């Protein structure tokens, strides 16, 4: 794997926000970071939709602390609750007035009919769905497929080296931990994403920013062309 010039890396996320997809769309290869630890109360297994009462979390339950493995690809979903039914019900209740509700709800029903008991696999499969809906063709790589075993800034650098990258596109928080000098010493430029979240038509009153992709998608028309306009 030596043809990736600009790379982005991010851990799995459930119903990610639009900035997640903007970064994927801007690079030559995206690395799905499934080798890091699960973080409670993060966006790995949850995100928000909009309701008449404001934002509401949709959370994929995972097995309790005693069952959690060390990495995301080993983290199991708690199937004792019918969370898929609950999430679909929440979408039906809150987006039934969306312009293309019937068509898009049917797509979600088909997507959620698939069964993955592993959190990383669920996010991987759903990521493919969202990339297709947004018209993003960036090749994906799982970090677990690469021979890297480091942490934090060094992990990012090692992944870039494994892919032959000469540029890394980081999210804004990368400024807090990336060792830019180490990247420069290996001939890799660190760039930072500059994404302005759009304001778009929503149901239920005043605009609520920072929701997951599902809210934007449900309220959009041609999702591919409208996403291209954002990037």
Structural class: alpha/beta
Enumerate how many helices there are, as a single number.
8
The gross shape turns out to be globular
Instruction: Summarize the amount of helix as a percent range.
Output: 25-40%
Strand content: 5-15%
Radius of gyration: 18 Å
Q: Characterize the biggest β-sheet.
A: 5 strands, parallel
Mean pLDDT, all residues: 94
Count of beta strands: 7
* CATH fold type: Rossmann fold
Distance between the termini: 27 Å
Low-confidence stretches: none
**What is the CATH architecture annotation?**
3-Layer(aba) Sandwich
Order of helices and strands: EHEEEHHHEHEHEHH
Please state how the strands of the largest beta sheet are arranged side by side. 5-2-1-6-7
State the domain count. 1
CATH class placement: Alpha Beta
Pfam families: WbqC
Protein name: WbqC family protein
What labels describe this entry?
five-stranded parallel beta sheet; WbqC family protein; alpha/beta; 231 residues; WbqC; Rossmann fold; 35% helix; 8 helices
List the helices and strands and how they pair.
Blueprint: E1 6-10, H1 18-25, E2 29-32, E3 46-51, E4 54-59, H2 83-95, H3 101-113, H4 119-134, E5 140-142, H5 152-162, E6 167-170, H6 180-185, E7 189-192, H7 213-219, H8 223-230
Parallel strand pairs: 1-2, 1-6, 2-5, 6-7
Antiparallel strand pairs: 3-4
Helix pairs in contact: 2-3
Organism: Pseudomonas tohonis
Pfam families: WbqC
Protein name: WbqC family protein
């Amino acid at each position: 794997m030596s043809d990736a010039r600009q790379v982005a890396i991010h851990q799995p996320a459930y119903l990610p926000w639009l900035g997640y997809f903007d970064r994927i769309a801007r690079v030559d290869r995206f690395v799905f970071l499934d080798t890091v630890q699960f973080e409670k109360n993060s966006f790995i297994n949850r995100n928000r939709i909009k309701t008449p009462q404001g934002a509401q979390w949709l959370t994929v339950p995972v097995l309790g602390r005693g069952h959690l493995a060390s990495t995301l690809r080993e983290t199991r979903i708690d199937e004792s609750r019918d969370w898929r039914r609950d999430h679909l019900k929440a979408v039906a209740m809150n987006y039934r007035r969306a312009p293309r509700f019937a068509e898009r709800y049917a797509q979600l029903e088909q997507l959620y009919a698939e069964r993955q008991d592993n959190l990383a696999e669920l996010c991987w499969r759903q990521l493919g769905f969202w990339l297709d809906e947004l018209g993003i063709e960036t090749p994906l790589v799982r970090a677990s497929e690469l021979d890297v075993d480091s942490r934090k800034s060094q992990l990012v650098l090692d992944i870039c080296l494994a892919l032959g990258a000469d540029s890394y596109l980081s999210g804004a928080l990368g400024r807090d931990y990336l060792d830019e000098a180490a990247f420069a010493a290996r001939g890799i430029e660190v760039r930072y994403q500059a994404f302005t979240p759009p304001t778009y038509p929503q149901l239920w009153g005043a605009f609520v920013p920072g929701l997951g992709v599902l809210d934007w998608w449900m309220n959009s028309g041609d999702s591919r062309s409208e996403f291209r306009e954002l990037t």
